[in-house]
Amino acid sequence: MKLYNTLARKKEAFRPQEGKTVRMYVCGPTVYDHLHIGNLRPLIVFDALRKYMEAFKGWEVIYVQNVTDVDDKLIERSAETGDTVEEIAKRYTDTYFSLLKQLDVKEPTHSPRATEYIEGMIELIQTLIGKGYAYERDGDVYYRVSAFKDYGKLSGRRTEELKVGARIAASEKKENPLDFTLWKAAKPGEPKWESPWGEGRPGWHTECVVLSREFLGEMLDIHAGGNDLIFPHHENEIAQAEAATGKLFSRFWLHNGLLMVGEEEMHKSLGNFAYAYEVLQKFGPETVRYFYLARHYRKPLDYSEGGLEEANKALARVHTLIDEVEAELGETDGGPETPGPSAAGRAFIDSLGRFRERYISEMEDDLNTVGALAAIQELVAEANRFRSTAEGSDRLALKKALNLIGELGWPLGLFQRKKPAPKGLQDELIKLLIELRAELRAKKEFALADSIRDRLAKLGITLKDRPQGTIWT
C-alpha cells in the first residue's frame, strides 16, 4: 500500500511500524457549533482508509480523534450566549457523535477531551522549558521556535521567510514573533487550571501532542487532517513532540484538500458555508459520502447541490440493481437440487474477481476512491448486461455480484444491504394488489391497473414489470 506522505512530499510504501497495529491520529472538532459540510471531508476520507485497512489488510487500527472542549472559540460563544463553556462543549460534542453515527463513520477507538488531560499538557510544557525550547513570561509560556532546527520541515516554510511581516502584539512578551503560545494566563471569566506559572489554560497545539501520545505512544504511524492544518498546527505539534522526545513524531502525515465555494475555501468566517446536518437532511448520508469519495482526497473539491445530485444519480444505479435483484430472488441462494450455472453463468462469476482486484489496486494507490468507485460502477454495468439475458439458475449468480458490491462498498460506507423487513401484513397486501393488477391487465382494464401502480408509488412502493413477473421495491 502506498500513501502520499506530506512530510516526504511523495508517495511512500506504508506498513505499520509494529506488527499489524496501525497507530492513527486524526484531528477532531472544536465543539463550539455544529459542523459545516466541509468539516465532514476528513471524517469520511480517513474513515474509509481505516475501514479498508481493517477489512482488506487485516490490520488493527487504533484510531484516536480528539475533542477540543476548551478554546478561544468556545469562550467567545459562551460570552455571546450566556451558556457556560462546559454546557456548549457538551451540547456540540453530543451532536458531533450523533453526526458520526448518521454518516456511518466508525467511532474512534479513543475520543479524548482536552480538558481531561491538562496535567499531561503541563508536564510536556515543563519538559520543553527544562530543555530550553520554551520560556515563561508573566504567566504565559511560549515555544522558542529558533531552538528547533527542523521548524518548517512539514510545510516547507523557512523561518527566515516566516519572519517577514510577522509582528509581536503589544500585549505579548515573545522573544521572537514566530514563537507560539503553549500556556495562556487566565483572564477574568475564562476556564482555568492551576499550573507552575499560575492559573491558565493550554494552547491548542499542545493539546494534540499530549492526546496522541497518551494513546498511541511517542511515534505515530499516521497523523491526518485537512491541509489547512499543515501550518501552523501540525508544524507546531512536530516542534513540541520532537523537541521533547528527540524522536520522529509521526512516520506519515496525510492531508485532505478543502471544500471550495467558487474561488474561496468554505469557512464560517466568510459566511459561505452550509451546516452539515442541513445538507444531510436534504440529500442523505450516503449521497454525501459518495460526493466526497468521487473526488481524490488530496484535491480541492467544489461544493454545489448539482454535485450532490450527480452523486445521488450514481448511487441510484447501484441501488437499482441491488433492489431489483433482491426483489426477484429474495433470500434464495440455491440448494443442492438447484441446477448449476451454465457456461455463461460460470463466466460471469469468474469475471467478478477482476473487479475486486481493480478495486484493491486503486485503494492501495494512495486511497484512490475515485478509481475504486469506477470499479464498482463497472461491476454494476456488467451485472446488468448479464441480467438482461440470464435465465433460470444463472440468475442466482447475480447474488454473488451483490455480495461483492457489499464487500467493496463497506470501507466506503456505501451500498450496504439493509436487513429485509419482517414478513407481515404489508407484504401480503402488496402481493395481493400486484395479483389484482395483473388480473386487471389481463382483462385489459388498464386504467384501473395503472391506478393501483400510481397510488402505490405515492406511498413509496415502486412496481417494476419484468419477464419473470412484477417486482416491488
Plain-language structure description:
The protein has 473 residues and is of the alpha/beta class. It folds into three domains: 287 residues, 3-Layer(aba) Sandwich (Rossmann fold); 105 residues, Four Helix Bundle (Hemerythrin (Met), subunit A), CATH 1.20.120.640; 48 residues, no CATH class. It has 15 helices and 15 strands. The protein has a four-stranded parallel sheet with strand order 4-3-9-10, sandwiched between helices. The chain has a four-stranded antiparallel sheet with strand order 5-6-7-8. Strands 12-11-13 form a three-stranded mixed sheet, with no helix packed on it. It is elongated. The mean pLDDT is 93.
Task: State the secondary-structure class.
Answer: alpha/beta
Q: Architecture of the largest domain, CATH level 2?
A: 3-Layer(aba) Sandwich
Give the low-pLDDT segments. Answer: none
Tell me, briefly, the overall form. Answer: elongated
CATH topology of the largest domain: Rossmann fold
What secondary-structure arrangement, pairings included, does this model have?
Elements: E1 2-5, E2 10-13, E3 21-26, H1 40-57, E4 60-65, H2 72-81, H3 85-102, H4 118-130, E5 134-137, E6 140-143, H5 159-163, E7 180-185, E8 200-202, H6 204-216, E9 220-226, H7 230-245, E10 250-256, E11 259-261, E12 264-265, H8 276-283, H9 285-293, E13 301-302, H10 305-329, H11 343-364, H12 369-387, H13 397-409, H14 425-442, H15 446-458, E14 463-466, E15 469-472
Parallel strand pairs: 3-4, 3-9, 9-10, 11-13
Antiparallel strand pairs: 1-2, 5-6, 6-7, 7-8, 11-12, 14-15
Helix pairs in contact: 4-6, 6-7, 8-9, 9-10, 10-12, 11-12, 11-13, 12-13, 14-15
